[in-house]
Design a protein that fits this description.
Bound molecules: 4-phospho-D-erythronate, magnesium ion
EC number: 3.1.3.41
Structural class: alpha/beta
Number of helices: 11
InterPro entries: HAD-like_sf, HAD-SF_hydro_IIA, HAD_sf, PGP_euk
Strand order of the largest sheet: 1-16-15-14-2-5-6
Keywords: Hydrolase, Magnesium, Metal-binding
Oligomer: single chain
Largest sheet: 7 strands, parallel
Shape: elongated
Helix content: 25-40%
CATH topology of the largest domain: Rossmann fold
Strand content: 15-25%
Binding site for Mg(2+): 24, 26, 245
CATH class of the largest domain: Alpha Beta
Order of helices and strands: EHEEEHEHEHEHEEHEEEHEHEHEHEH
Pfam families: Hydrolase_6 (PF13344), Hydrolase_like (PF13242)
């Protein structure tokens, strides 16, 4: 059963019990480019109390460095080494887990941030933002030459997805023996500033259906992202809390990692999913309306 936070003591106890605070981004800190009220103040409270702050986003459209630009633009203090994204997690998975040979390449369905992280990890790629692949011209195999060096397809949120990219990815995944199928994340929807949009999971779905095969997911709830954090940040899982807006990614990620979990209702999850007649089997430790509620500890109300 989740604890619904309400009194200043409830929030003060969270501050006493947890030294490391991991934040999801879309739906917790912001929706699109709309900053959620109280976020800056709450992060200031945590930093003033010497808490470790980590950002863990499934949004693969930006690299860690370009996310730093978004944080700066929205006036939210963040340092690149506090930011972990699914683009970074997929690049690390390819380099450190699959150990993709330098002679091999990746075909990308995704945007500039995913390409940046692959480049940082020394992974060669095609597709992505290449103008030749970002076309609405009909795709024909008569004009397609299979690149035998493509050993993986990585699929992330791609607002320019088209039939050419899906068709090329399909060729590699069916004709290059052992070609890995990787999804940066599988969020079904994305909470933009003005409402829900199809998420990364909806971008890889056509390939899953055409192939009859599921990808390996490197984003939340998979442990890959937490492994990336562990490789750079020393923290005690028992004194760490994960704050998220989506049950089947953020809260499950926290539970898989042995972390405490706090669900906020400013993004994807609606109250009815946790208190309704058919509640989700994924039960967060704590629930509050919005991250901004934590300001109550400063006001002592
Ligand atoms: O890929 C998606 O659907 C979105 O980027 C999704 O919102 C993940 O972002 P997060 O909530 O993990 O920051
Ligand atoms: Mg989110």
């Amino acid at each position: 059963m989740s604890v619904r936070l309400s009194s200043p003591d409830d929030y003060s106890k969270l501050l006493d019990d947890y030294d490391t605070w991991m934040f999801d981004c879309d739906g917790v800190l912001w929706r699109g480019d709309h900053l959620i009220e109280g976020v800056v103040e709450v992060l200031d409270i945590l930093r003033s109390r010497k808490k470790k702050v980590i950002f863990v986003t499934n949004n693969a459209t930006k690299s860690r460095k370009s996310y730093k630009g978004k944080f700066d633009q929205l006036g939210v203090e963040a340092h690149v080494d506090e930011i972990y994204g699914s683009a970074y997690a997929s690049a690390v998975y390819l380099s450190s887990v699959i150990k993709l040979p330098k002679s091999k390449k990746v075909y990308v369905i995704g945007m500039g941030g995913l390409e940046e992280e692959l480049r940082e990890e020394g992974i060669a790629f095609t597709g992505g933002t290449d103008p030749a692949d970002n076309t609405l011209e009909p795709f024909t195999l008569a004009n397609f030459t299979l690149d035998p060096d493509i050993a993986a397809v990585v699929c992330g949120l791609d607002t320019g997805v088209n039939y050419t990219k899906l068709s090329k990815a399909f060729q590699y995944l069916t004709r290059n023996s052992g070609c890995h199928f990787i999804a940066t994340n599988e969020d079904s929807t994305y909470p933009s500033a003005n409402g829900l949009l199809p998420g990364a999971g909806a971008i890889s779905a056509p390939l899953r259906y055409a192939l009859g095969r599921d990808p390996v997911c490197t984003g939340k709830p998979a442990s890959t992202m937490l492994d990336c954090v562990k490789a750079k940040v020393n923290f005690d899982p028992k004194r760490t809390i994960m704050i998220g807006d989506r049950l089947n990614t953020d809260i499950l990620f926290g539970q898989n990692g042995g972390l405490a979990t706090l669900l906020v209702l400013t993004g994807i999850t609606q109250e009815a999913e946790i208190t309704g007649p058919n509640p989700s089997p994924i039960v967060p430790d704590f629930v509050t309306e919005t991250l901004g509620d934590l300001r109550i500890v400063e006001r002592g109300q």
